[in-house]
């Protein structure tokens, strides 16, 4: 695979018509990675995602979806060499991963009840939106299944093997999503979500104990664990300051 670099030495495109997204505005520069998805497909996924996430609050909005996508691109770029040997397979796989990153919260149980009419309608919108960008029926089914089996609160989530051939997509997506719930961004999102759902400052603080401090231990990809350690440390340091000020 031949990458082309611009004058800043940033990867901007690859041979044979595919584009690499130049994702250089991430809060974590070391989480910037190339993405083997065409610009047209990416933009189409962003449009679908912005429609489906339109009524989500700022904690689970398009900005979050795009940060997750950036995180996943980096993890994927570090792992694909051992996971794939055919570039075509890699492109298809990366497209499914990108779709999952941008769309995973469209069917998040915090916003939409599984089995509800709304849920069925959103799943149909996902199908209608993913087929035109070239995903096969089994890839669309796989993407939806990945999104259904990635949340922290899903105690019956399928194993990586049960989600084959998209088990790695789920693992990367889950790590990428969890990184966005850690560190400074994760702290901001936690308080933002608490506010969106009518919760108090204290309830947001409790969520750190219930979930956020446990996330690092659940990361499975080496790239995520490397960055996650730093984000986890920030989380712990913030909690100490917060507790000191509030007298918890
Ligand atoms: Fe998410």
Brief account:
This protein is an all-alpha fold and 248 residues long.
How would you describe the overall organization of this protein?
- The longest helix is centred in the last third of the chain and has 25 residues, at 222-246.
- Mean pLDDT is 83; it is low at 1-33.
- This protein folds into two domains: 3-166; 181-248, Up-down Bundle (Methane Monooxygenase Hydroxylase, Chain G, domain 1).
- The protein starts with a strand and ends with a helix.
- It is an all-alpha fold.
- α1 (39-52) packs antiparallel against α4 (117-130), α2 crosses α6 (167-179) and α4 packs across α5 (137-148).
- 58% of the residues lie in helices and 3% in strands.
- Strands 1-2 form a two-stranded antiparallel ribbon.
- β1 and β2 (11-14) form a beta hairpin.
- The chain has ten helices and two strands.
- The structure holds fe (ii) ion.
- The site of fe (ii) ion has 6 residues, from α2.
